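Before relying on records like the one below, remember that each one covers exactly one chain. Contacts with other chains, cofactors or solvent are not represented anywhere in the record.
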Amino acid sequence: MKNWLPFEWIVALRFLKEGRMQTAFIMGGIAIGVAVIVFMSELLIGLQGNFIKRVLTGQSHVQLLNQKEQARPLREQEAATIQAPVQRVRSIDQWQSVKKTLQAMHGVQVVTPTLSGAALLTRGGGSRSVSVVGVEAEDYFRIVAIPEKIVKGQPRLWASDILIGTDLASDLGVSLGDKVRLDTGNGSAMVLTVSGIFDLGSRGANQRTTFVSLRTVQSLLGLPGGATTLEVTVSDVWAAEDMARQMTRMTGIEADSWIHNNAQFFASISAQTTANTAIRFFVGLSVAFGIASVLVVSVVQKSREIGILRAMGITQGKILRVFLLQGGLLGLGGSLIGCSLGATGLLLWEHFARNPDGTPMWELEFHTALFGGAVVLAMLTGLLSALAPALRAARLDPVIAIRA
């Protein structure tokens, strides 16, 4: 094999082989550094993906809402006392045309209207105050996966059907097929059949939230053809805030993104990303210093050999490339071992880190781009770390080096 290898490769490989103990230590250090970077990055990606999945399971990416009613004084008075008006359930003006405008936007996936209000759910002598949400099931279930949360019955929303939470069903002693009465504040009432019981993973939501068809709520609230909210999902969840601003400019209707509504959660995600970036930077920095220190020692140890090579007519450029190759090979070898260690650690984590019910905490995905990026980054780090020792070796005076 050496017969066709360039001169620089032959010398670089021989230097690495002769200092096999140093080579093993520095490759071990690189491997550990890359393993830490890969393991923590994949773990953070999985953790963030799991958090986002949980947050967005029960809500859309962007909501378009009617602005709240505000009282205005008849004339300007400095000491005027203005009492806030009672907020009525109002429909978005011409929401059908607004929906068409949103659907035409690039990056928008689903747009569906909802109509919600307060009501009293009664069965026998028991009653509970609930929030009734009217939806178009086919589109709404593409945003909020209610069918996956049904524990009894089916996610059917015909005109006389209602879906209720597990805690609400327990409080009222309701089971599938039972009749319940829904009374609204405007005096309207309707008897509905429980077609499904769901579990949203929150006791409060399971006690207060009910789902019926959009037309049923429109009839109950006296808003025929009305909708109080337009629920929107977008292709890039991280661009939801920018999309919300764009929607507001285009429609004149207030739009809130999931990022705005979950500001604290989003801040924690950003903090995790920043911390992970800092850890990767300092791990890479320590690897770089390790490679540089080993190669500096190698230059000192191999100064006589370098002097002989220079005396034989080997150019400074070739000597430079010899040590740059050593840095690159150390980075490549260490990174490949480190990627293997990181992948093994992730598999062990997925196997042993379990929820109380035995299911994995979250599903981990191996991103090829991350592993490839770690290898390239380690090689570049090796090359950059070898630059100073390589320049020092190339500048050695052959006479002084031979006498050393």
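Residues 244 and 312 are 70 Å apart (CA to CA).
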